[in-house]
Amino acid sequence: MPWINSHFNVKSYRKIVRLSALLLLLGLSGYIYYLDVTIREAFEGRKFAVPARVYGRALEVYPGLKLTSGQFAEELKRIGYHENPQPDEAATYKNTWNGLEFTTRDFMFGDGPQAAQHLRIEFADGTVSRLQVRSEEDDDLPLLRLEPPLIGGIYPGHNEDRELLKLNQFPKLLTDALISIEDRKFYTHWGIDPRGIARALYKTVSGQRIEGGSTLTQQLVKNFFLTSERTLTRKATEVLMSLLLEMHYSKGEILETYLNEIFLGQDASRAIHGFGLASHFYFDRPLDRLEPQEIALLVGMVKGPGLYDPRKNPDLALKRRNVVLQEMVKLNVITQAQFVQARRKPLGVVHRAPIGTSPYPAFMQFVYRQLQRDYREDDLRSEGLRIFTTLDPQIQLQAEEALALRLRQIEKTRKIAVNTLEGAVVVSSTQNGEIQAIVGGREARYAGYNRALDAQRPIGSLAKPIVFLTALEKPDRYTLITPLDDSPLVWSQQGTSDWKPQNYDLKFHGLVPLHTALEQSYNVATARLGIELGVKNILDKLPLYGIERQPPPFASSMLGAFDLAPIEVAQLYQTFADNGFRTPLRAIREIVTADGKPLQRYPLNVEPVAAAAPVYLLTAALQGVVREGTAQSLSYWLPADLNVAGKTGTTDDLRDSWFAGYTGNHVAVVWVGRDDNNPTGLTGASGAMTVWGEMMKNLQPEPLQPVVPEEIEMVNVNPSSGLRYDGDCRAGVLMPFIRGSAPGDISDCDFTYADSQKSKESESNDAKVKPGEKQDTGKKNWFQRLFN
Amino acid sequence: MKNRYASFFIFASLLLFAGCAGVTTKPPAESTAPAEQPKPVMSENPAVVALLDRAQRDNEAGKRETSGASLERALRIEPRNPWLWYELAQLRLTQGQYAQAISLARKSNSFAGQDRQLQALNWRLIGNAHVAQGDTPGAEQALKTAAELEQSNE
Fold it and tell me: What is A514-527 written as a DSSP string?
């Protein structure tokens, strides 16, 4: 039995050995196959993974445009132009006594390529006075579209940014230098350098640190899998993968991918990959314009982009650069003369603050959310899409600065703890709904909580215009001078407790003209008006104005007891500003593929959602808010003749401070409050409105002069009594009415009588009608200035 | 009887439209239509004129989206120029975006002031968009308004 047993054992042992050998072989080849697939996928994938580039609006310049020489130069710098006494190279400029001479770049726009041009621009009185092509004849140019500023990217993987170049676009000096420093046998080895590996192995086994011996191929493999792990298995995998890579691809392909792929630095959250992008990142110039010492610096950084970061460790970087230069001259990559010259030069790295993936994170987030609705995440991150947006960096900057400045000042003067106030700003263009700026908080560079999009807060009195517009749409019942009742009100509604609205001043004002109720933001008069019109009728209109969210069906919603984000409020006021046309707020104009084919346009869409005449009356009343109502102090920032329309909003216990308003060219909404939702002590006028004014004064606002719809007529009335006067009676005020809605009976023009009468009435109803003023100016009153 | 009258009316109006619609975006097939009204000066600003020219070129080359992009650029420079809104409305009509064509024509009219000629063009465009939408009463109403405006303009 034992014999049989042992015989069996020997036999089965052999079997097992053979079987395991077979399995091992199978396993190994399986593993190698797995490695092969992995490395090829990585190689092919990286070869084409180009982030989406996001551009701001291209500045359009033409004679007559309001623009100063300084602003223009600033824009040139923003898009990477450099001063040069001979501005004939792309992206250079020089100042002249009344303007600039400059040369643009070739640029691929969404509607086709635009060739570089040698140009001259002149300015006079804050406008562009001349635009010319510099040539023998100096032709006038009607319009110039500058290249748009790059405002960010949407990056693959770990926010990897790269700019893909073809092998023949890399300077020979660079490839020569790289090969001489990193891998001299690159063109002859099979992907690995046995001697290097033996040396590394020896050092590892003898307990020294694991290091070096990597060919470019190995470095590329290592770079694909971004781990700093240094183990023997890791090294073995790397070797296998390198061999496999060399089997599948030519030296040229491997080198090209290496040059585009190698990690060369970190810009906040953004990783800088490849020499093409690194050249821009460190020297603000394309690779083919770098000098030998600059190429040497980049090549030297391959060894340790963090350690030899020329911005953080300039001394180490300089030493490393010179070592590289030394090697280059030794191997005759550069001449002795070049070496001597290059060694003396400073690093020459441009100074810039780290911007990470974008300097405008709040706006980028809005763009990104819109893109995510229409595109696959992978395509966004790797297809090299070019996305043209509406951001105006000049406006964005003003909005950021105004918010940060005013919040600091308010905290100081009101003795509020530092950095407890927060805010958000949205600015759009009045006529086409393009978003020009989004500020998500006072730290505008910080990509954190985006209050402009995500802070949903009660909007308070910002909701009132909806109520008043609904009223003014019924001209047979309501005009700007219809008396409203601002006496105590108790309202019972099913599903909620009795509602007793109060005015901000805790007083009641009796009968007040409709426009005054809005100007002074009287809650009780508004509540009563809303109840008359029907709460449901009013709230049902919100979707029409682009507000998707449905507020609770209670009367208090009419006074803004429901939450909206600043961006939604901007959409609401956009419709008021645009004469009743709703234009969906847009941040993207078009998307173009990497090779310049138009992929998608987001065209300008309009829809008439409110009749022009009632909206005109609403705007007139909102202009009254600024002229003589709750936003009067806006005059501290903006001249009266801008005729700004706006509305303040303050919520319970002074938790939220809002201001929404519009000029001829901008709609803007500002929210100020605290992230913990505690009271700030600020009203709409003392908080948000001051940010609005501070910002708007720097945006070259155009006066608000709405087109007068045909249905509107100007009628001379006594605004308090509602009596109509003859056209030339000096006692009256010209006010807009929808035809047929003005008081019918014409009363006698008893100038003195009317005057004393008004005086009494204004005392009784606090309607802010100042008879004295009226007497002085006769009919030269605000409405006349406005509407004539 | 009433229907017949309506379709005759629309047909007649379409013929009329063919005569005066193509201010810049006239399809080549209609070039034999009756005499055009004199081309209005759409803008005094050479930058806007340059963009209008470009929009027209692109449109004639069938590049409608690009043509629209140029019109939007022009509108950024002169947002209250009713002719630019009209041009965009026409473009949307040729693209078959009827609802948008109607909205844009109304926007154009909101800036048209006392310009009866342009108002008539806009109403005609609205009428034709309604025809294309199959909205006969809407078309009838719009084309009637257009005809009235044309008469008052004469």
Answer: HHHHHHTT-HHHHH
DSSP 8-state symbol, A531 = H
The predicted model gives A654-675 an average pLDDT of 97
pLDDT at A694 over 80: yes
Q: Find out whether A648 and A622 touch, Cβ atoms under 8 Å.
A: no
**What are the residue ranges spanned by the domains of chain B?**
4-152
Contact (CB, 8 A) for A584 and A388:
no
Model's pTM, two decimal places?
0.81
Q: Rounded to whole angstroms, how far apart are CA atoms A76 and A83?
A: 10
Is the distance from CB of A617 to CB of A713 less than 8 angstroms? no
Interatomic CA distance for residues A503 and A482, integer angstroms: 20
Residues ≥6 apart with Cβ < 8 Å to A30: none
Question: What are the pLDDT digits (tens) for A317-375?
Answer: 999 999 999 999 998 889 999 999 999 999 988 887 677 778 899 999 999 998 888 88
Q: Which CATH superfamily is domain B4-152 in?
A: Tetratricopeptide repeat domain (1.25.40.10)
Taking every pair of Cα atoms in chain A, the longest distance, rounded to a whole number of angstroms, is: 139
ipTM summary value: 0.80
- Smallest CA–CA distance, residue B96 to chain A, in Å, is 14
Note whether A590 contacts B46, CB cutoff 8 Å.
no
Which structure tokens are listed for A298? 């980049």
DSSP A116-165: --EEEEEEETTEEEEEEE-SSS--B-S-EEPPPPEEEEE-STTTEEE---
Q: Are strands A588-592 and A92-96 parallel, antiparallel or unpaired?
A: unpaired
- Cβ atoms < 10 Å from Cβ of B103: 24
Is B115 touching A (CB cutoff 8 A)?
Answer: no
The residue assigned the tokens 């993968």 is A241
SS3 state at A212: coil
Q: Which of A81-90, A271-280, B14-23, B112-121 has the lowest mean pLDDT?
A: B14-23
What is the Cα–Cα distance from A228 to A208, expressed in whole angstroms?
Answer: 17
Separation CA A157–CA A168 (nearest Å): 27
Alpha helices in A302-386 (DSSP H): 314-330, 336-344, 361-374, 377-382
**Alpha carbon distance B49, B55 (integer Å):** 10
- Considering the candidates A461, A521, A657, A741, report the single residue annotated as catalytic: A461
Measured between beta carbons, which residues in chain B are less than 8 angstroms from residue A589? Answer: 69, 72
What is the crossing angle of helices A275-283 and A292-301, to 10°? 120
Give Cβ neighbours of residue A131 (< 8 Å, ≥ 6 apart).
A61, A62, A63, A119, A120, A121, A122, A140, A141, A142, A143, A144
| Residue of A196 and A611 predicted with greater confidence | A611
Contacts of A111 in chain B (CB under 8 A): 58, 66, 69-70
- Using a pLDDT cut of 90, give the percent of chain A over it: 62
DSSP per residue over B48-71, as a string? HHHHHHHHHHHHHTT-HHHHHHHH
| Residue of A131, A144, A395, A431 to mutate, interface with B, max B Cβ within 10 Å | A431
